[in-house]
Design brief:
The protein has helices at residues 15-20, 44-56, 107-115, 131-136, 144-147, 175-181, 218-228, 270-276, 300-310, 328-340, 385-398, 423-436; strands spanning 6-9, 37-40, 61-64, 80-83, 90-92, 98-101, 119-120, 154-160, 166-169, 191-198, 200-201, 205-214, 236-245, 256-267, 291-298, 316-324, 348-353, 371-379, 403-405. By secondary structure, the chain is of the alpha+beta class. It folds into 2 domains: 1-201, Uridine Diphospho-n-acetylenolpyruvylglucosamine Reductase, domain 3 (2-Layer Sandwich); 205-410, Vanillyl-alcohol Oxidase, Chain A, domain 3 (3-Layer(aba) Sandwich), CATH 3.40.462.20.
Length: 457
């Protein structure tokens, strides 16, 4: 085997660090999910060699780009783990606007490179997320409401197939593999070494309005958001957030539970931003707000800092999500308790607008709705595992009457399995898997039940 990178075999010194040091979630399996070896390739030839070795020795393959998945998709029992941590190069073509981005490149590294070129790519909101898993899962990036899913901007991939062959795939060659890569997520049956991403011109300004309310107003505010979000300018990204803040000016006490409306406009002039944000200047419940900050200029550095604060390193996480559908009255009534009654002071629940819903191109990713809901429970002490896990299980179960499906990026199929692609696309995906990986070399989805994959159960 002509492999130039590092290999850590089970029981080697450094094996345990290689297994988990790049895993974001500190709620980790203790007595299971030990790969036979961890391969850290230096280049594409190493990736080919690793895949060939797995083939010759009947070992399954799991892949890690950034290690940010809540379920820790990449750490599997037996087989080998190919950790792509050395693959962080970005190469931008001025003529085409296409960036060649390797899978371990993180959003905080990609965004400033493109910004310096006056270009934009809808990378993930959390700056420490790598593009590999993010793009395979669809990629809910900045301004997804109007710019679309980040996977839509993939114009090609360089990928090592299960037989060890390195190929390029796009809409014209190996088109079925290209189709699958845009939405198959951790069930993808190839090892991508580079994404070819179509960028677009950057907007000149980011302008925001942020309004903080008592958490007791979560239900009427959620109802109002659902009633109006489809009418907003395409330049607006809109979120509703339930969380706890340590203190708040002019509010007594500490650890204050609040509901936040945050509208962020990507625009070419301050006047355009002010116009886009007008719906948040005056509405029925605004007079009850604790705090308002309107029409202020911001930037990616500030927004990433807020994301880092909300997504701290070194913590235990339980996360789940749902695509919601139903009347504003019904949806707001069912979801409001999970915004107003969080299980601890670090947890937060998110409502994210995708309205009016854009039609999707032909790709594996195929389940969405106008409302994306996710809840993120974060804590430090293992002793709190049962309390927090039980809260999130019950919360997501309560959403069943209004759940259309789920997004892979915030999912853990070991806890909740829901539909993530259409029935037609699921059947097509299985056919493409059988064509390219008939021996099942690449691990399938980590889940409770393979028989119940892509079902709302």
């Amino acid at each position: 085997m002509n492999f130039r990178g590092q290999i850590f075999w089970k029981n080697d010194e450094g094996y345990e660090e290689a297994r988990f040091s790049r895993v974001f979630n500190h709620r980790r399996p203790k007595s299971e999910r030990y790969p036979e070896a961890i391969f850290i390739p230096e280049n594409e030839n190493d990736v080919v060699e690793a895949v060939k070795y797995a083939n010759e020795n009947n070992l399954k393959i799991a892949v890690r780009a950034g290690g940010h998945s809540w379920a820790i998709w990449s750490v599997r029992e037996s087989g080998i783990l190919v950790d792509m941590q050395k693959f962080t190069n970005v190469d931008y073509d001025e003529k085409t606007g296409i960036a060649k981005v390797q899978p371990a490149t993180r959003n905080l590294e990609l965004q400033p490179i493109l910004e310096a070129k006056g270009r934009f790519f809808a990378g993930g909101h959390c700056p420490t997320v790598a593009v590999g898993g993010f793009l395979l899962q669809g990629g809910q990036g900045w301004l997804a409401r109007s710019r679309g899913w980040s996977a839509e901007q993939i114009v090609g991939i360089d990928v090592v197939k299960a037989n060890g062959e390195l190929i390029h795939a796009n809409k014209d060659q190996n088109a079925d593999l290209y189709w699958a890569a845009r939405g198959a997520g951790p069930g993808f049956f190839g090892l991508i070494t580079c994404f070819h991403l179509q960028t677009s011109p950057s907007k000149k300004y980011m302008m925001a309005s942020t309004i903080l309310f008592p958490n007791t107003l979560a239900q009427p505010l959620l109802k109002w958001l659902q009633e109006m979000h489809g009418t907003l300018a395409p330049s607006i990204e809109l979120v509703g957030l339930g969380q706890t803040v340590p203190t708040l000016e002019n509010v007594e006490g500490t650890d204050i539970p609040i509901f936040i409306i945050h509208a962020l406009a990507f625009v070419d002039s301050e006047e355009e931003g002010i116009e886009a944000l007008k719906p948040f200047e005056s509405f029925d419940l605004k007079e009850k707000a604790y705090f308002t900050r309107e029409n202020y200029l911001t930037n990616f550095e500030e927004q990433f800092a807020l994301q880092m604060e909300a997504n701290p390193e070194g913590h235990r996480w339980a996360v789940s999500n749902a695509w919601l559908e139903g009347t504003p009255e019904k949806v707001s009534e069912i979801i409001a308790p999970s915004f107003a009654n969080l299980p601890n002071k670090q947890a937060f629940t998110l409502w994210y607008s995708m309205a009016p819903l854009r039609p999707l191109p032909d790709m594996a990713f195929s389940v969405q709705s106008e409302i994306y809901y996710a809840t993120y429970v974060v804590w430090k002490d293992e002793a709190d595992d049962a309390h927090n896990n039980n809260w999130i299980k019950q919360t997501i179960s309560d959403l069943a009457p209004i759940t259309k499906g789920q997004y892979l990026g915030d999912s853990d199929f070991q806890v909740h399995q829901r539909k993530f692609v259409s029935d037609e696309n699921w059947q097509k995906l299985q056919g493409i898997r059988a064509k390219y990986d008939h021996k099942g070399l690449f691990h399938n989805y980590l889940c409770k039940s393979e028989a119940d994959l892509n079902k709302n159960i």
